[in-house]
Amino acid sequence: MHNKTLAELSAGLQAKTWSSVELTQHFLDRIKRLDPNYNSFITVTEDVALAQAKAADARLAAGETHPLCGVPIAHKDIFCTQGVKTTCGSKMLDNFISPYDATVVANFQAAGAVMLGKTNMDEFAMGSSNETSFFGPVKNPWATGCVPGGSSGGSAAAVAARLAPGATATDTGGSIRQPAALCGLTGLKPTYGRVSRWGMIAFASSLDQAGPMTRTAEDAALMLNTMASFDAKDSTNIDREVPDYTASLNDSLAGLTLGVPKEYFGEGLNPGTQAAVEAAIKQYEALGATIKPISLPHSHLAVPAYYVIAPAECSANLSRFDGVRYGHRCENPADLADLYKRSRSEAFGEEVQRRILVGTYCLSAGYYDAYYRKAQKVRRLIKQDFVDAFKEVDLVIGPTSPSPAFAFGAKGADPIAMYLEDIYTIATNLAGLPGMSLPCGLVDGKPVGLQLIGNYFEEARMLNAAHQYQQVTDFHQQAPADIA
After folding, report:
1. CB crowding 417-441: b at 16 or more within 10 Å, else e
2. Which residue of the set 90, 129, 133, 151 is catalytic?
3. Known catalytic residue: 76?
4. From 90, 133, 175, 196, active-site residue
5. pLDDT digits (tens, 9 = 90+) for 361-390
6. pLDDT at 413 over 80
7. 417 pLDDT tier (thresholds 50, 70, 90)
8. Spatial distance between the Cα atoms of 435 and 420, rounded to a whole number of angstroms
9. Is 175 an annotated catalytic residue?
10. Where does residue 99 rank: exposed (0-12), middle (13-18), buried (19+ CB within 10 A)?
11. How many of the other CB atoms lie within 10 Å of CB of 413?
C-alpha cells in the first residue's frame, strides 16, 4: 500500500479494497519501524490517527465520497493541532499543546483525512537543511548522510520514505520546493493568500504560505482542493472561489508558452542539475509547449532583500515568546529583564537568534530606511520583473535548487552559502506568486528538481503542466533504494 499514490489509496478506500484503519495501521507500523533511520517525525499521533480512521470508515460506509476521506497524511509541526504538541522544531515550544486547530488542519479533518503525526522541521522554519531543529536533523532517505532540505524536511523525508502518502508544509523562501527537489517529490507553494495562515506559527508574515508535499501533481491537486479556502480569521486570506485543481490536469500543453530566465542558468548551478533541467525543457517542447528566453533582471537582489525582510518580520513575530505568556521559562530569574533574556537565550537556537538580531537591527532607529525600506523597494522591482514576464509567457521554468542534496555540516559554518540554496525560490515569495517543484532527474543517485512559477492564482495551470510532464516521464515514480 505504501508505494501507491494518494489518489490510488483513495480509490482503494472507495472500492472497499482496504479500510482506513488498515491503511492507517500500515503507515503507523512503517513509521515505528523505519523513522528512527530518518527522524522525520517529532510526534506520532497513533491513538488520534486510529480514532480518526475508525470515524472515516463509518463515513465511507455511509457513502462519503470526498477523495481524502480515510487517507492518512502528516502535518508539519508548524500547524497548531488541538490537544497535540506543536513545537515548531524549537525548545521554546517543546511543551506547547495547542487549544485549537489551524484552519488547514481543520479543513483536512472536515474532509475525513487522518493525521499520522507532526513532522520535523528547521526551528521556526528557519533553515535550508533541517539541521536547526531542536529535535535533531532529518536524514534524506535518498542518502542518509545528506540533508533533506529545509525547512519542511521532515514532511519531505516522510513522504519520500513512504511513511505518509502526503504531508502539509510551508514555504517562506522555498521551504516546500527546495526539500521537494532534494527528496524527489512534488511540492507546491500556492499564491500568497490562497491558503489560510491562521493557526500556522508565523515566521515572516508577508512571505509564509502553506502548501502540499506529495509524490505526484495529481496528489498535490487533491490536497490543494482541501487546503485552499476563505478564512475570515486570516486578514491576508483571499475571498476567491477555489477551483477544482484536478479538473484541468489532462488538458493539452499545446499553445503553452514557457519562459526560461537566463539569470537561472549562471554561475553556481551544478552542471548535472543544469543538464537535467534542460532535458526537461526539451521534453516540454516535445509536449507542444513553446519555449521562450526571458530575463528577470533583478533576480540577483532577491536573496539580500529576503534576508532583510524575513528577519525583520521574524524579530517582530518571535517577540511574543518571552517566557511569560507561553513558551520556555528559565529557572529562578533574578528580575524581569533576566527572565526575558535567559528564557530566550536558552530556548532559541543559534540560527533563530542570528535572524532576530539581524531583523531587530534592520528595524532600529536610524537603519530602517537604509535597510528595511530599501529592501521593500527592491521587492517591488522583483515583482515587476515577473509582471512583465507574464505578459509574454504562461509559466516560468528553471531549476529549483542549485545542486542536489549536500552532506550534513557542509554549509553549517557559512550562513551565506546556506542562504544561497534558496536562490531560485526566494523571488516567488517576495512577489507572492505560486511555484512548484517536481522531479526531473538524478545526479549521483540524488534527485533534481524542476521549478515551475505561475502567475497569480494560476495553480491549476502549473499542476496541469506538471501532470502532463509526469505522464511521459517516471522520475516521480522512483524511490530511494533502501526503503522497504
Report:
1. ebbbbbbbbbbbbbbbbbbbbbbbb
2. 151
3. yes
4. 175
5. 999 988 999 999 999 999 999 999 999 999
6. no
7. confident
8. 18
9. yes
10. exposed
11. 8
